[in-house]
Amino acid sequence: MINKKITLLTVAMGLWVCSCVEPFNLNIASVLRILTVDATITDTSDEQTITLTESVNSNGSAYSLPLLKATVNIIVNGSETTALTEKGNGVYALPTTFKMKAGNSYKLIFSKADGTKYESSVDKLTTVPEIIGVHDEFKVDGIEKGNFFDPANYIYLDTQDPVNDKNNYLWSWKLWERQSVCATCYNGRYFLTPLPARCREERAFASQMFDYFCPGDCWDILSNKDLNVFSDIYSNGQPINNRLIAKIPYYNVKGALIEIKQQSISPDAYRYFKLLADQVQNNGSLVDTPPAALIGNIKNIAKPDEPIAGFFMVTSVRTVKYWIDRKGAEGKKLNPVGLLDHPLTPEPMGNDLTRPPFAQCILSQTRTPSKPNGWVN
Questions:
Q1: Contact, 90 vs 105, CB < 8 A?
Q2: Residue from 273, 308, 315, 316 nearest 120 by CA
């Protein structure tokens, strides 16, 4: 929970960057609704979607609510119109036949159910070079945590910036770590029935916490929370070597799998993300009041001064997966920090033989029971 004094606009930025749907505590009283647009279209074969939400303040908390029944279109090269289909929860999908092409320009336009119209500026797709190599370095004093440090693997990549082209980069990552605890219950215990299986509060277990192991294979999926952007304005055509992409804590003795994504972005997108990164990463966190207004490239046609969170962009993407073997920790007598934020506390065994010994590994955006492609046993 967040108990800092913040502006609703910054909360909307945080909701957009982190894709968070949980309520935030605020110290403000407002009924403003701020539109948040998650609109990045790539040249990959993945389904291309745009998410429209509104952050709403109610009783001191900000919630992200889906924008439903909108009419959404992409304009290609100023003339060709492609309609998106509503999938629910504020998600709108492009046809599977839609393909991005380098050199083409793209624009987002959409209308709310009440007829309010919005449009983005035009963004042009530029290609991105391949990732040449990835390597890691184990550091005992890897990540500062209060008055001490957690050991971590630093992940670096190498790429070659194209000659005679102005290029801007955005890097992100996704990490798979094997998880052994599939549920943590507070003030109660875990129950398989009635469905869905879940934690249930019980007066007899108030102020107690229990962890429940996974019945089989399970992986947590973690993603970057910081923005990592770069412009070649001073190094055009030069190799980009040892670019720090991630600091991965020493969660487990065994290895982990990381997927690194390298994207090309426009100069306008670079300036936007650089400003956002400078404000939220160098001045505190995503929920601190920014020193300057963050203006994206989407506007209300009738009311251009309406604050809108998010940025429409098109991007070329290259990805690579890398196995973190954590051999650098061998012989250093270090304990893994683990994926839990507390000491392991299983439910004590008792006379009730109906108690579930395990909790389900439920597929979600942050967890999967399926072995990731590239995982090394």
A1: no
A2: 308
